[in-house]
Specification:
Layout (H helix, E strand, L loop, with lengths): L24 H9 L5 H5 L5 E4 L15 E14 L5 E8 L4 E7 L13 E6 L2 E3 L2 E5 L2 E6 L17 H4 L27 E4 L8 H15 L9 H7 L4 H9 L4 H33 L9 H9 L7 H14 L6 E6 L5 H14 L3 E5 L3 H14 L7 E4 L5 H13 L4 E4 L13 E7 L6 H8 L6 E6 L5 H7 L4 E5 L10 E5 L4 H13 L3 E5 L14 H10 L7 E4 L5 H12 L5 E4 L12 E6 L7 H8 L10 E5 L5 H12 L3 H12 L1 H5 L18 H17 L9 H11 L10
Parallel strand pairs: 4-7, 10-15, 10-16, 11-13, 11-14, 12-13, 14-15, 17-22, 18-20, 18-21, 19-20, 21-22
Antiparallel strand pairs: 1-9, 2-3, 2-5, 3-4, 5-8, 6-7
Helix pairs in contact: 4-6, 6-7, 7-22, 7-23, 8-10, 9-10, 19-20
Length: 736
């Protein structure tokens, strides 16, 4: 027999829920399935919504579609079987003038809950049915008992039961249910605003609510107040004990929603204070090299580009030059839409650093992207004396040793590579700038690892994945932001079409015509090889079919993440040189791949990709001056998937798509904060609760500006929670 855990006396909130009244072995297991182990877990098991039973109306005042409540008297109870075999219980409620019918399907014993003459309340969403108002499975609250014998049965009229054919006075006739019914049972709640909780199998709301309510009554006063008094006053938040009561036992819906917003704000505030402390620490305690970009340097760097920078690119360059000129480490996020030219801005920053006699490094998340950046830099620096090195996992042990030694001695100015650069053995002589590409694949904890190289460089982190603003304020909340939306002059938009399987042969004919004109194409598949579970076209299978069938007269290549690095490099090089006409690939080409002559793309099973990912993929065919064409084959089974595809065909703005994708699929799936080292948000939704997040951020940064170490007594509880949740992840030495 397992020994019962001993609750720590200093913190009753860590006591196991098994000690609470009403929690036996079965209920304990159900609570654990909900992630509820302790009293604290139970108190902060937030309702997902509320049923407002305070909107009480006369039957004549009902409107369809929203939860409303009607008080009245039971005038009719009937059970009957329908032609399709289902049974239905019908209970008619009269408000003294008009009638409302409550119906329960396949609930034979529903009638046992009621007595004639009972005063009850029906709460639910009414609808018009055959000329009268009806609620399906309404919530029932008994208002008072009134015992009287049932009236004699009344036959149904041609238009319905008697009570519904015309208004009846209380106690009017109806069809009875045989037998004496026991005393009715309401739903076990006296409240008029009922919290609706996430539940699990065999656990009903009326079973969970009393357990939570007892816990609130006993333990709410023992919960530490996190919010300083000034922030509570300014935002109108109740104290934590009152907020818990309003959350779980609200008297009004506004009180419940205010309590919920308070806890969402609190969660956001803790995170934003952590980010503000981290940002202040990096700026106030660390010192980076001062890198001044003179007019001569600026002119020399710009001459290396075979094009003029756009206004957005110029603004981003100005932001970077201003940051580099300070001895505080630059912490900047460069967001760019697909094809808007973030790489050119990054190259400018790298070369400005090298011109200041410091080393610069460009880190990419994959070998393919590192190779792509290397090729781009080689093109820009063909006539340059910049000493540069490509450092990837493909180097032999000896090549790697030689490369590390050259970096350590300062014989290399510019390094391009993958996350291998984060390893401890990489040492720089005088590192001035770290550029991290596709920032959302690195996260804050990996940025902290780079700092352990023993220097305090400037940071430019960048992504071609547009990110909703509220997500950026969280995942990248310690960074300044520059945004590039403008496409370079001459860059053509991509035409996107959603096709059916019946249009495939016609499309293949068009692709063959374009390939004969010298164009190249991508065919993107969601899987590498066959899946026993998913009936999808795979990259390997599609490559074989295209090579042997409709494109046997063309050169068809294959690229996916499971290939050896050298094979991937060789394949991409061959595609760039136009030694391959069609590249069949997985989403490994999603970012960074730049082949201007590849203007055609076919995406198989497009419903399997998110909006942002589809936007990234089609961005591969908008790299030159010829308009790209993207064709989606999809057979979506959900309305959400259909909506994603419709949105993609309507707009090419990546920032609009990012917001829509987050709205449809949820932020957690797109930018799950766990991968960034920030853990999952329990209460807040970065899209729906964006305004609360922005307020919490303003308050957090103002608070840290006033009390950087959170040393004031009223900030003690907040400081403890910030350290507990984010101290190690964000390396918060300033308040540790």
């Amino acid at each position: 027999m397992m020994a019962a855990p001993t609750p720590p006396p200093a913190d009753p909130l860590k006591q196991s829920v098994q000690y609470l009244t009403g929690v036996g072995p079965t209920r304990l297991e159900q609570l654990r399935r909900l992630g509820i182990e302790t009293v604290g877990d139970l108190l902060f098991h937030l309702p997902r919504s509320y049923e407002d039973l305070t909107d009480v109306r006369r039957v004549a005042e009902l409107t369809a579609g929203t939860v409303q409540t009607v008080h009245g008297e039971i005038v009719e109870i009937e059970g009957r079987r329908l032609a399709d075999g289902r049974c239905v219980v019908s209970v008619v409620l009269s408000d003294g003038k008009d009638c409302l019918e409550g119906v329960w399907f396949n609930q034979v014993y529903a009638s046992s809950r009621f007595r004639y003459g009972q005063r009850v309340a029906f709460s639910g969403k009414p609808k018009r049915y055959q000329g009268h108002w009806q609620m399906a499975n309404p919530r029932v609250t008994v208002l008072e008992e009134r015992r009287q014998p049932p009236p004699s049965p009344q036959p149904l009229s041609s238009e319905g039961r008697g009570a519904l054919a015309a208004p009846l006075a209380p106690g009017g006739g109806g069809v009875g249910v045989r037998g004496t019914t026991p005393a009715p049972r309401d739903d076990g709640d006296d409240a008029r605003v009922l919290p609706v909780y996430p539940l699990t199998e065999d656990l009903r709301a009326e079973q969970l609510r009393p357990i939570i309510q007892r816990a609130v009554a006993q333990f709410a006063v023992k919960v530490s107040e996190i919010l300083p008094p000034e922030l509570r006053r300014r935002n109108g938040w109740p104290d934590v004990a009152q907020a818990l009561r309003d959350l779980h036992m609200p008297e009004t819906l506004p009180a419940a929603l205010t309590a919920r917003r308070r806890f969402i704000y609190e969660e956001f505030l803790i995170l934003q204070v952590a980010l503000a402390v981290r940002r202040r620490e990096l700026r106030d305690r660390l010192r980076a090299p001062i890198l001044i970009v003179s007019r001569q340097m600026d002119a020399h760097i710009r001459r290396l580009f075979p094009f003029r920078l756009t206004e957005d690119q110029d603004r981003a360059v100005a932001d970077i030059c201003r940051d580099l000129a300070s001895d505080r480490p630059m912490q900047r996020l460069l967001q760019a839409d697909v094809g808007a030219g973030k790489t050119a801005v990054a190259v400018y920053a790298l070369l400005a650093t090298v011109a200041n006699k410091h080393q610069a490094v460009l880190m990419a998340p994959t070998e393919v992207l590192a190779q792509q950046h290397w090729q781009t830099l080689e093109g820009y620096l063909a006539q340059s004396r910049v000493r540069r090195l490509l450092l990837t996992g493909a180097l032999s042990p000896r090549e790697r040793r030689d490369a590390l030694e050259a970096i350590r001695l300062g014989h290399v100015d510019l390094v391009v590579g993958t996350q291998a650069l984060v390893q401890n053995e990489v040492q720089f002589a005088r590192l001035g700038l770290v550029v991290i590409d596709e920032q959302h694949k690195f996260g804050v904890n990996q940025r902290a690892q780079v700092r352990r190289l023993g220097v305090d460089p400037h940071y430019l982190v960048m992504t071609a994945t547009p990110i909703p603003r509220t997500v950026a304020l969280t995942v990248f909340g310690d960074l300044d932001v520059s945004i590039i939306r403008q496409l370079p002059p001459g860059r053509q938009p991509v035409t996107t079409r959603w096709l059916t399987e019946a249009q495939r042969e016609r499309l293949y004919g068009r692709l063959r015509e374009e390939l004969r004109r010298g164009r190249q194409a991508y065919v993107v598949c969601p899987l590498v090889s066959e899946s026993a579970v998913l009936d999808l076209k795979t990259a390997v299978q599609t490559h074989e079919q295209l090579q042997a069938g409709p494109f046997r007269d063309f050169r068809v290549g294959l690229l996916h993440g499971s290939l050896d690095d050298q094979v991937k490099d060789a394949t991409m090089t061959a595609f760039r040189r136009h030694e391959i006409d069609i590249l069949v690939s997985t989403s490994v080409i999603e970012v960074g791949v730049d082949v201007p002559n590849a203007t055609l793309m076919v995406i198989e099973h497009a419903e399997r990709f998110g909006l942002s990912q589809l936007h990234q993929l089609r961005g591969r065919v908008s790299r030159g001056e010829i308009a790209g064409q993207c064709y989606l084959f999809a057979d979506p089974t959900s309305e959400e998937a259909r909506e994603r595809l419709r949105i993609l065909t309507r707009t090419a703005d990546g920032f609009v798509l990012a917001e829509q994708d987050a709205r449809l699929r949820g932020v957690g799936e797109l930018f799950g904060t766990r991968q960034h080292g920030l853990g999952e948000l329990r209460f807040g939704d970065l899209i729906a609760d964006g305004e609360i997040l922005r307020q919490a951020r303003r308050d957090a940064f103002a608070l840290v500006a006033e009390d950087a170490g959170l040393r004031q007594p009223e900030h003690a509880a907040l400081r403890r929670l910030v350290l507990e949740r984010y101290g190690k992840t964000l390396d918060l030495a300033a308040i540790g």
